[in-house]
Amino acid sequence: MKKLGRLLLLIPCLMAVGCRQSALPVYSYYQSLEDMGWGQSEELFYTFPVTADERYQVEGVVRVSPDFTLRQVPLGVVLETPDHQYRESQLMMPVKQRQISTTGYVVREYPFEILSDFAPEQSGTYTLSLRPLPEPIISLSLRLTFFTSIVTMRKSTNNKPYDPSTAVLLIYTGGTIGMTEDPATGALKAIDFAYIEEHVPEVNNFSFHIDTYSFDLVIDSSEMGPTHWREMALTIRENYDKYSGFVILHGTDTMAYTASMLSFMLDGLCKPVLLTGSQLPIGKVRTDGKENLLTSIEIAAAKDQMGNPLLREVCIYFDNRLLRGNRCTKVSSDQFKAFDSPNYPCLAHAGIDIHYHPEVLMRNDYGEGDLRLHLDLDPNILVLSLFPGLPESMVASAFETPGLKAVVFRTFGSGREVL
To answer: What is the mean pLDDT of the segment spanning 305-324?
Structure first.
């Protein structure tokens, strides 16, 4: 592999992961480096495995310095097949006037499409190389996203006609709601959410189309982290124009963390993203999962008087209450009322009817602006809870953690602390 010379400062290290039919999407990881500059003589190489007869897309996002003036940049693209055949092409990387704020400086972020609807003729490892044609290009970062087309992923849950203005996408990540009890052993096992109608036949009673997408490997929510948050955000972005709402099925232990993160990652969101789950497996007689799931779907499809989505933010629906995603926390592990929003009122209550409280709903203007993703998550942040008697030496040692970028203190009362 060719050395990248001066190509530094936030150039990502791409994780090569197989894109199987149930593995949408595959995304890049981030690596902080020290310099900047992407010159004509410096190529980027990415390798990724593919499977024949599936469809792939490759997108890129480039960040440039504020004084970057070009409106578009020619980019040379070479795709090497497993049998060492080369396909060369050239694309114009658009440079739009979109500014985003990052730590310490302001940059402009420009998404662009590299490969669209790519159907490889053979399985194996492909190599993609990118080279800017003018000299020099000052680039602060480049991120590539590899994913299979959602068209090959879509699994219809009910037989209603597909209409993007009313359709809802279920995204199953794992958790208790997706478990059922083995009658022979009594052990819990995961169900295939692509066939959720077998376990919750009531989904067929909705008048609109419902599709399901499941994580390749469903996880216990205690294993949730930035990798999975990026996958959820990218899945929503890829399907944003194909569905009117999204319901994420999630374990309860970290659901509030995921809801809060997605609320900041999905900038400009004008459609509902609801997280829900259950305290009892969906296969149990007394499960709370069915009501949580069905009402979440109904809320995700709700429209205002203009026919636009009624809800335009990330929320948690649980035990008859709709809560703002970044204002709620888990309060119980054994009660159906598992979540609460101590410092913000409920957005809706569900009884015989669903009663919304419009005065507290977020009012993003529908159709104004694009959905923008913030995927560059830095895990080097520490949350430190102060308690009486906490030794100063422990606090000092926390500050000496290698790579630590910031510390958030949980303090007493209105913010007092004594160290």
So the answer is: 95
Instruction: Provide CB contacts within 8 A for 159, sequence distance 6+.
Output: 204
Q: Is 258 tagged catalytic?
A: no
Place of tokens 């290009």: 137
Strands (E), 119-261: 124-132, 139-148, 155-156, 168-172, 179-181, 188-190, 210-214, 245-249
Residue 403's contacts (CB-CB under 8 Å, 6 or more residues apart) are 380
Across-strand partners of 124?
Answer: 50
Whether 373 contacts 356, CB under 8 Å:
no
Is residue 148 within 8 Å of 115, Cβ to Cβ?
no
Can you give the pLDDT at residue 54? 67
The alpha carbon of 204 is separated from its chain's Cα centroid by a whole number of angstroms, namely 27
Question: Taking the chain, what is the end-to-end CA distance rounded to the nearest angstrom?
Answer: 51
> What kind and span of H or E run contains 109?
strand 105-118
How many Cβ atoms from other residues are within 10 Å of residue 392's Cβ? 9
Of 60-64, 155-159, 321-325, minimum mean pLDDT range? 60-64
pLDDT tens digits for range 327-380? 999 999 999 999 999 999 999 999 999 999 999 999 877 666 688 888 888 888
Find the catalytic residue in 176, 212, 254, 295: 176
Residues in CB range of 358: below 8 A, 6 or more apart: none
| Reported pTM | 0.66
Residue 357: how many other CB atoms lie within 10 Å:
12
Contact (Cβ atoms closer than 8 angstroms) between residue 25 and residue 146: yes
- Flag whether pLDDT at 15 surpasses 50: no
Q: How far is CA 414 from CA 324, 410, 411, 417, in A?
A: 23, 10, 8, 9
Closest CA to 312 of 263, 262, 265, 362: 362
Per-chain mean pLDDT for the chain: 76
Q: CA geometry: angle at 136 spanning 33 and 138, to 5°?
A: 40
To which residue do tokens 């995603």 refer? Answer: 325
Q: What is the arithmetic mean of pLDDT over 297-315? A: 95
Tokens of 410: 């949980």
Omega cis (within 30) before 136 = yes
Dihedral angle of Cα 411, 412, 414, 418, to the nearest 10 degrees = -80
CA-CA distance, 301 to 283, in Å (whole number)? 25
Q: What is the DSSP letter of 230?
A: H
Token pair 């890829």 is found at 238
State which amino acid sits at residue 314.
V
Q: Please give the Cα distance from 347 to 326 (Å, whole number).
A: 13
Which three-class secondary structure state does DSSP give residue 229?
A: helix
